[in-house]
Amino acid sequence: MHLSSALVAALLVAFLVTSTVRYIYTRYFSRHALPSSLPWIGVEGGSCFSRARATLRSFWHTRELVFEGYEKYSKKGLPFVLPNITTGPEVILPMSQMEWLLKQKETVLDQNEVNRSFLQADYTMLHPKVVTDTVHEDVIRKELTKMLGDYTADVIDEIDYAFRKNWGVDTKEWTEITSYYSMLDIIARISNRVIVGFPLCRDEGYLSHAKQFARWVVVEAAFIAMVPKTLKGILAPLIRILDVNYFRQNSKVVVPLIKKRLSSPSIEEKKKLTNPQDDYIQWSIDHSYDRKDPSLRTVDIINKRLSVIQFAVIQSSTITLANLALDLASYPELSSMFAHIRFEVLNELQATGGEWTKDALARMVSLDSVLRESMRMWGFVSRGVMKEVVAKKGVTLPSGHHLPHGTKVGVHASPVHRDDDIYPDALEFKPFRFCSNGGLRMVDDYSEKVVGNGIPLVTTSSNFMAFSHGRHACPGRFFASQQLKLVLAYIALNYDIKPIPFRPTNLWFVNTQGPPLDSKISVRRREGTV
Ligand code: HEM
């Protein structure tokens, strides 16, 4: 080996060793310049080794750490530090400081930054522009929310198709299904009916790749987050190899479609059409024409934007419905609960002559309540509102603690959702907890809006943060809520579910939780519904 090559190799090794050591020190041992008066949960004696142990523990045991900290500090009005192995420690505020948290300017505390690092968006979202452009936001807030009523009939049609395919139509024998995988398929189908429409929404290859892509983003993000920053450029593409392959497979069918849309008709001609193509690809093209930057409407970026929206629409709703299926199967009074839902749904439909209008769906409050109760217990991200200090000079908490630039600060939803002082019998699944006629106390605070006889699923508050809360609460929750409510109504109208003796508990992975992927339930089509 030449002397120069040996020198380059030695420098490379030195660089790798230094950046890895630096990363290990920062991630596991450092106090991150947080005030020494802030206690770290799970850390005894405050030694740096104890901090490293607690950080390692957060990989599988964040649940214990979050709940312990909530009881020990949050309920006494004190902040504490929660170790987090993937994205670094978080300062958890007591609920009394929620108002302060929500009032801070985005130039001081920013929620986007936390979401971006949770999803390692710069690596998992395929293109840096997809992370920062606001086309997604426009489509979600406009077409996917304001036009909900326009495609209700399509969603119902696809729900029927997807359930017949996944849960079957046998009215005599029970059919065993895996709750997670059947919901993954159902949600992928009904979302894609809106997102890409016919014929792609029935293309089995396309759907399979879209499902796989959506499933792996969060897991890959967690592993990428644990790689030293200096090595991410090399290692992230290796970690992402599966998803990039799924994306490429789908590009084969999506790219020709986008090219065709971009060439004909022209955007100006299209605006004159009375019945333009309505799907995500078209909305994304249309909104990018509102921007001055032509690089926001290349074939490549439109294609990548579509994959990213697939992740948003598939993954969270799938986990929500997989949780719901287990809650239903293990609820001892399921048949009377379904009878109540059927009564409410059929009553409302009778009033509209059988049409699923937006208003009729809004009045079906028992659907909101059942889903809200399931999400209260099993919301898939533990954090409720988490922000990052972006002000260069840091920020001072109401408690007087000063947090430096880059610190994550906020509240976790999961212990609040399971606090008996807020939700009596919080560990019990009470499906009509959020219906005022359910005979139970309505849970409210300054921001929970009670409409008619119950609280809409989409309403967020400091007591219900499954969609987060405040300015950055999930913008897709209106779209998701419509799907979830229609799915629950469909199940109650068309299926029986065989009781299971207990509800399998969820598994935690850092600060997310999900139902065991292999949990099975048995279902049977109701007589007269085939
Ligand atoms: C049951 C289904 C869903 C759940 C439980 C859910 C939950 C959440 C949560 C907890 C956040 C806040 C993350 C954070 O900043 O810490 C969030 C943000 C977001 N969600 Fe959802 N989501 C769901 C469905 C959807 C759908 C269907 C879409 C798209 C149509 C969507 C698009 C988004 C976007 C774009 C954000 C980022 C908002 C921002 O930072 O301002 N979500 N979601």
UniProtKB/TrEMBL annotation:
Q: Which InterPro entries match?
A: Cyt_P450, Cyt_P450_CS, Cyt_P450_E_grp-IV, Cyt_P450_sf
Q: Which UniProt keywords apply?
A: Heme, Iron, Metal-binding, Monooxygenase, Oxidoreductase
Molecular-function GO terms, alphabetical = heme binding; iron ion binding; monooxygenase activity; oxidoreductase activity, acting on paired donors, with incorporation or reduction of molecular oxygen
| This protein's record includes keyword Glycoprotein | no
Q: Where does heme bind?
A: C474
Asked whether the keyword Metal-binding is assigned, the reply is yes
Identify the domain of life.
Eukaryota
Which cofactors are named for this entry?
heme
**Family under the similarity heading:** Belongs to the cytochrome P450 family.
Protein name as it appears in the record? Cytochrome P450
